[in-house]
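ZP: hey, is the pyridoxal-5'-phosphate complex queued? I don't see it on the tracker
AM: it wasn't, my bad. submitting now with these inputs:
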Amino acid sequence: MSFQTPKARFQVAARMQQINPFRVMTVLERAKALEAQGRSIVHLEVGEPDFVTAAPILEAGREALANGHTAYTPAAGLPQLRARIAQHYLETQGIQIAPERIFVTPGASGALSLVAQLLVNPGDGVLMSDPGYPCNRNYVRLAGGEAQLVPVTAASQFQITPALLEQYATKASRGVWLATPSNPTGTVLTQEQLGAITQYCDRHDLHVLVDEIYHGLDYSNGLVSALAVSDDAIVINSFSKYFGMTGWRLGWLVVPEELVPACNILAQNLFIAASTPAQYAALRAFDADTRVILEERRQQFALRRDYLSAALKELGFSIDTPTLGAFYIYAGIEKFSDDCEVFCKLLLEEFGVAVTPGTDFGDYENKRFVRFAFTTGMEQLELAVDRLKIAVASGKLCR
Ligand SMILES: Cc1ncc(COP(=O)(O)O)c(C=O)c1O
């Protein structure tokens, strides 16, 4: 990426040369511009639930404001929220986590950038899957580290394995960052797989960070947290996805005990604290009445997944791994095109369907894939499928 400016004082820092744009946002901007011109667009690009935050959480947020909860909280978060998150691990995973190990952050994004600053020295390598969540590479690079991309395929459900670590780790490697369920592939890591990776990392003294932001949104038999497997795992989660609170900007981080003091100092400096009204609102996210709403939404996501993956397969997209979690389908477009960016542009401009090109998620075979997010209702999904049928029949996609 190059940022040219004739004024030396506005010359952006050299580190910015390595930071890629988040292409999905570019797709979204273009889709919005087309809508502003009167075009109808189906949005399958956005990784954000289409549901408004559940009513009990909204009510708790309003109450927090009415009660004047507008001052900073401690850097690590409201003590009662940290305790509630700890209880959540007990209820859902049967594991005891000391609330002191839990930090409430401005989204999972805040937690990821905090960990990068906490653990990555200039020159350190962090292993991560390619494809994977695009921002992770940039957090590591901003800390002066090297994102060591590990090409993953359907053969390992697009997840990192100990054998791949053996192949790609170098002397510079300091850690491994994983996500289960994964964005963009919707694949998951089982307890055994997490165990094998953490054991490998123990043997090679690598830290393990597991992004569990899509926990709760799974369509298999429940997911095991890395915290159930290792006390040394660093775990990221968020209120954005399962809890449907993207715009409230609230996430959390669980760190091993020995990292607590340094993490606290860094949290104080990086963001002082997460949003206070959002933290009060989130206290209601775990209550039974809210959980009923969230469970119903999860079931709707499951229905959408079933419908869209069957329809895409019938249209000729290749889907080698079923979506077991999150709300994404990572689909091969080899039958139509060898360039996902050209494909996505055509699909948006001529047929009114916005999807994200695989080039957003890494370098390996990235042109062969696109990501469909089923973050819109059934009617819109049916409209998208109708438009895709027309697009395929037109032969225009095959360029
Ligand atoms: C895997 C993953 N991690 C982290 C994030 C950041 O989420 P937030 O900052 O909204 O919690 C996202 C958002 O899409 C994601 O997909």
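AM: back. DSSP finds twelve helices and twelve strands in the chain.
ZP: great, adding it to the tracker
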